[in-house]
C-alpha cells in the first residue's frame, strides 16, 4: 500500500498508533482506537503484520498496564476501565493468534504477567478476555514453559482447572498441552490429581472437551505409568468417555479423541489393540481427511502417528482405501503447506513397509505432484516429500522398473541436496540413498545431475547428520558397479578424504565410510588395487579405527573391509596382516584375537573370513603368513571355535583351520 | 431423541410386514399412529430448541412461560446473536463484525472461511450501493491478501468482483450474489459459528426431523400404499390411491 496516502485517513495504521500513544487525547477516544485496532486485526494476518511492524503491541500493552494498575475506581470509571482491559486484552490475544511473530512481540512487551492478573478479575468478561488471550499465547511454541514441578505452580494450575469460568479451565488445559514434556512432569501432574479433573472436563463444553483431550494425550504420551493410572481401577469409565468422543458431532473433538487414544495405544502395547478399535480409528481419521478446514490439515499428522512403524495398522489403512483419499487431497489442496506436508508424511508412513501400498501410491500418479512439492516454499513440505520418496523407493521392484528414473524427479531432488534447511538436505539424501542402489537401468541420469560431486562435497559437511547420509549414498552408489564407476567415485572423493571419514568423530559416519570402502574394494583385484594403492594408508586408517572403537557396527564393517582387501595381491595381504597382529596401546591381545573373542557372532564371522582370505593355499606368501599366525596363537583360538554356537562361525572356523593345517603340518 | 426412534420403529414394522406392495387403509394407519405415544415434554423441547436456535427470543420467553419448558441456553445470549444476524441481514456487515468480535474475538480469528464470507458480503454491499472506488480499494486491501492465502477464496473473490463489470446486474451471471438470499446465507453462517462457540447445536432439530420423515416416506412408498403426508404445513393424511 502506498505510504504517502496513509496518514490522513482516520482508519490508517499510522494515525491509529499515534492516537494510542498520544497523551493528549481523551481516554474515550483511546478506547475507541483500541477497539478499532482490534476489529482491524481480527482474522486479518496482513493487518496483524503491518501493525506489528509499526510497534502497535508495546503501545497496547502499556495501555493495558496502566489500566490494570488503576484499579479500585468507582462508578462510571470502573466500567470504563474494564472496557479498556477487555479491548486491550482482546487485541493482544489477536496479535498472538496464529502468528508466532505476534506471540513474540506480545511476550517481549511484558503482556504475559498482566494477562495473568486479569484471570482473577471480578468482572467475568475481563477474566474471559484475559484467559482467552493467554490460551492463544499457549497455542504457540514460543509461549513460556510452565514449571509444574514447583508446588505453588501446581496449585495455581489446579485452581485454573477448577474454575467455574469455561475459558479459564480451557486455559489450564492448554498450559498442560504446551508445557508437559518430561516423564517427571507427567508423573507430577498425575499425582496432583490432574487426570481426574481433566476427565471430568470431558463432560463440559466443546472447548473444554477439546482442551481436555489434548492435555490428556500430552500427559499420557510415552509414559506407561500414567497410562495405567488413566486406565486404572475406575478407568474403564474414562477410557469409554474418550472412545465415545471419537463419534462426537464436532470434527475437531473427533480428531482430538483419536489423538488421545493413539497416545494411549502407542504408550503401551496392552491397551486398545483389538481389531475393532483399530479399524474404527482408521475410519474416523479417513473421514476427517476430507474436512476442508484446520481439522483436515491436522488429520494426516494424527493418522501418521497411528500408523508409523506399525505394519498391521498400515495394512488396515491400506484396506480402508486411505491411500486413495490422501492422493485425492493432493489433487484438491492447491498446495497448501500444512496439508501437503501431512499428506506426504502419511503417504511416506504407508510406504515404509508394504509393497502393496507402494504399488497403489505409484499407480495413483502421486509422482506427478512431486516436482512441484520438491520446490515448495515451505521447508516442511520439501522435507516431507523427500521422506515420502525415500520410503516409496524402498522397493527393488519399482527401482528396477525405473519408476523414479525421470528428470522431473531426479533433477529437483538432487537440487534439494543444497537446500537451505538441514532437515530437507538429510531427507533428500535419504531418498537418493535408495534411488541410487542398483540403478542399472539408467545410471547416467543421476550422474548427469552431478550427484557424485554433490555427495562428495556434502561428505565434508559440518553437520554430522549430513555427512552420514552423504557417505551412505556414496556407499549405495558404489554397490555392485563396474570398476570404471568405482574409479570415478574414488577419484572424485580421493583416498585421503576416505581415510579421514573412516576416522570421523561420529561412529555412524565411520561405519558408513568403512562400508563404502568395503563396496569399493569388493570384486576384482583391480578394484582392490585402485582403492588401496601401494602405500596402504587406507588399510592403516581402518586398522587404527578398529583398535580404538568399541562400536560393534564399526568393527564389523571394518573387518569385512579388511577381508575384502585380504583377497587382493600379496602386498594387500601383508598390509592386512600388519593390522591384525598389531597390539594397540596397553592391549595385551592383538586385534585378531580380540575380534575372534568378540561376543558378537557377526564380528567373529567377518574375522574368520579375513583369515580364510589370508591363508588361501594358492598364494605365494601364504606359508610365511601362516607361520606368523601360528606364533600369534591363532590355532588354539580357532580350535576353541570349532563348536561355536553360531553355525556360520563354526563352519568358517573349521575351513580356516583346515587351510592353516595344510601348511602347519610342515611347521610341526 | 426418543421421538425419532418411535416413529421409525413403527414405520419399519410396517415395512417388514409387506412382502409385496401392501395396502394400508386409513383406519388401520390411524390406529397405528394412535398407538405411538409421544411425550408432550419432548414435543415442547423440540419447539423450544427451534425457537432458541433460530433466535426468537420473545417467542421463547413466552413459550417458557406458557409451557414451563426450560431453554438449554441463557436467553440473554440470544439477543446478542440476533443483533449480529440482523445486522448482516440488513447489510450492516461492518457493524456485525464488530459485534461478533465483542461477543468472542476468537470466532473470526480462528474461522478464516467465515471471516472471508463476511468481508465478501461487505464488498457486495459496497457494490450494491454503487461505491465502485471504495469497493475496488476494499477488494484490493482486505480481500486480495485472503485470496493469496487460499485458492478457493481467490475464486470467490473473482466472482464477486465480476459484479462490477456489468451495468445491468440482472444480466450478470453472478447476479445472485446481490440477492437477499446471499445475505441470509452469510447471516446464517455467522449465526451457526456463534452457536458453536457457545457449545450449542448450530441447527435446530425440527428440520432434520422433517427430512427424516420425507426419507422414511420415500422408503415406505416402495413397499406399501398408505395414507402419506404430502402437505407438511398441515400434516394432513392423504387417502391411499387404490
Automatic annotation (TrEMBL), chain A:
One of its GO terms (biological process) is proteasome-mediated ubiquitin-dependent protein catabolic process. Its main location: cytoplasm. This is Armadillo repeat-containing protein 8. One of its GO terms (cellular component) is nucleus. It comes from Erythranthe guttata (Yellow monkey flower). Keywords: Cytoplasm, Nucleus, Repeat. Gene3D superfamilies: Leucine-rich Repeat Variant (1.25.10.10). Pfam families: Arm. Transmembrane segments: none annotated. The keyword Methyltransferase does not apply. It is found in: Cytoplasm; Nucleus.
UniProtKB/TrEMBL annotation, chain B:
GO terms for biological process: proteasome-mediated ubiquitin-dependent protein catabolic process. One of its GO terms (cellular component) is nucleus. InterPro entries: CRA_dom, CTLH/CRA, CTLH_C, LisH, Ubq-SigPath_Reg. Residues 77-134 form the CTLH domain. This is CTLH domain-containing protein. It comes from Erythranthe guttata (Yellow monkey flower).
